C-alpha cells in the first residue's frame, strides 16, 4: 500500500517536472528578457513589451525600488533568478558592481558611443573605474518650487540666498502661522539642504575610502541656519507625503515654497491624492545660494538607474530597454499613465530624451510659468562630491537620521547620529572613513 | 506473547505520530542548522577572505552590543513579569471562582489571539495620545504627544508590555492546566492541617508544578531572545528608524538581506541557538518533565502529583 503511493508520487513528480522542462528547450531562438521596474516606470515597460512582441520576449515585473539588492543576495545563493535589466535607486550601482555581489555589468561596448555622448554629464553618476555601470533614467536635481499666488498675497520675492530663504521662513512663522516651507523627512534634509551645502556624507574617494564628516563647516552651517525653521515649525520633520502633512498643509494650500527635486511637481505637488495644488500657481526657481559660495549647487533625491545583470543571456536586448526608456518619444511623451497623464514623469538624463520632455512640460498649462529653465540650470549644478556607496545610506537617512530628528528636534543631533551610523557601516563594508 | 504484540503495535503508533513532527524538525530545524554552519565561512562584503572569523566579526559588529543591551533589557523585564503574573493568575484561577470560572478562562485566551503584527497596531493605538482609549490616563501622566512615548530607549518597556499581553493568556491556561494535575487528596490534607489559601498556593501547589514553571521559563526565555516581528514592524512601517537592528534577530536579518552577509547572519543565528539549546537541555535532563510513566513508576515517586501525571500518561 505504502509503496503504491510512493510510486504514484514519483509518477506525479515526473509529470510536473516534465512540463516545466519542455518549454525551455523549445524557445531558445528568440531572445527573452525579464525587466523589473517600479510603478512609475511600469506603463513605459509594458509599452516596450508590446512594441517588441515577435522580436524579443519581454517579461515585465513590478518591484519596489529596494527589492533588487535584497533579492540578488538570494539569487546569488541559488545561482539563478536574476532579472536581466532593473530600474533601481541610484545608490544601488555601488553595491551591484561590487565583485562579490556582481549583478551590474560594464555597459560601454553594448551601445554605440553616440548614445553615451548624448548624456553629456547626465550619466556621470554611473561612471567608475573608467567604465559605465548603469544608465541614468532621470536627474532628480533640487530646485526651488514656489506658489506664485501665496508669494503675491504675502508680498514675497524669490529668495536668491539661503539667508533670504530663512528670513522668509521667519516671516511666515510670525505673520502667517500654519504655512510651510516644506518637509525634511525621507530624503528631504539630505537632498535639499545637506547635499547642496556640500556636507560630506557619502563622498567616496576610492573603492576603499569614503569621506564622512558631519562636523565639517559645510554641515554645521546647515544645522545652524535652518534650525530656527524647524523650531518654529515652518520646516516639518515629517515626509512630504506624510498623511498629516498632506491633509493639514499640502491640500490646505499652505506650502509657500519648498526646495525639492525636479519630479516634485508631477509627483508631490500636483496629484489629487497628494498636495493637489490647483493649476496656475506653481513655478520653479534656481536653488538659493549657501553663504560664501559662488555656485548654487543642487542635491539629488532619487534619479533612478537601469542596471544590466552580467548573468543576462541577452545583455544587448536588456540595455535596449533602458535606451528605449530614456530616449523614445513613445515613452517620454506619449505613454498613458494610470492617473491619466502622459509620458515620463521625471526629468530625463539623456539629452535627446530631455529635449522631448522639455517640449512637453514647457507647454503644460498646469504651471504658472515654464518650470524647465530652472531645472535645466540646476541639472548642470548637481554637486558631484556625493557618490554611490556600498552601504545603505538612504535607509540610514530615513531611519537613523529621521528618528534622531524627530526625537530631539535638533538637526545637529540628527547629523551626528547619522554620520556615526554610516561611518560604522562603511568601515564594516571595507571602507576607510576619513574626515577630508 | 500477547504483551509483545501490544508493545509492537504501540511502537508503530508512536512512530506514526512522531513522523510528522520529525519531518518538520528535520526540514525546518536540523537541515537549516547544518546549512548555517556551512554558510558561516563563505566570503561576503564584511568577511572578504571568508573563514570562521565571521563569528568574531559579527560579535564586533557595531550593532551587536546595542542589540544585546536591548534584548537583555527586554528579557530582564519580560521574563520575570511573565513568571510572576502567569503563576499568580493561574493560582488565583485555581481557587474556586464559582460559575464565572469558564468565562474567566476564556477572557485569558482572547489577548493571545492578538499577536505579532496585530499587537503592534493595537499598542500603536493604545499609546497614541490623540486616539487612545486610555488617553485620560496618558494625559494624567502628562503624555500628550506620541513622540513622548515612541522613543528607542522606551522600547524595552513597550515591547515587554506587548509581548506580555500576547503571551500571558495562553500560559495562564497552561499553568492552570498543570494545577489541575495536583491531587485533591493532597489539597484536602493540607486544608485539614490548617493551610490557608495563600499557604496552599505557595507551599503546596507551586512546588508540585515547579517543573512546568521551569519549562515555561525556558520557552519564554528562548522566545524573548528571538524577538523580531514587533520591533521590525515598528521600524519599517510605524516609526521608521526607531528600532533599526534593535534585536539580535533583526541584526541577523539586516546582515543577510541588506548587506548580503549570509555568513555573519548564520554565525549570529548559531550563537543565538546556544542559550536556547542549553535551556532545552536543562528542561530535559534537570527536570523530570519528559520522564515517561514507566520511569516514574520505577523511581517510586512519593509525590501524588507526579503519580497523577503518570496515570494520565499511561
What are the secondary-structure elements of chain B, in order, as H or E?
HHHHHHHHHHHHHHHH
The fold-level CATH name of the largest domain in chain A is D-Maltodextrin-Binding Protein, domain 2
Distance linking N and C termini of chain A: 76 Å
User: What string gives the helices and strands of chain A in order?
Assistant: HEHEHEHHEEEEHHHEEHHEHEEHHHHHHE
The total tally of domains of chain A equals: 2
Low-confidence stretches of chain B: none
Give the CATH architecture of the largest domain in chain A: 3-Layer(aba) Sandwich
If you consult CATH, what is the topology of the largest domain in chain B? MetI-like fold
What is the CATH superfamily of the largest domain in chain B? MetI-like
CATH superfamily of the largest domain in chain A: Periplasmic binding protein-like II
What is the name of the CATH class of the largest domain in chain B?
Answer: Mainly Alpha
* Number of DSSP-assigned strands of chain B: 0
Structural domain tally of chain B: 2
What is the typical, i.e. mean, pLDDT of chain A?
91
Order of strands in the sheet with the most strands of chain A? 2-1-3-12-6
Mean of all residue-level pLDDT scores of chain B: 84
What CATH architecture label of the largest domain in chain B applies?
Orthogonal Bundle
Largest sheet of chain B: none
How many alpha or pi helices of chain A?
Answer: 17
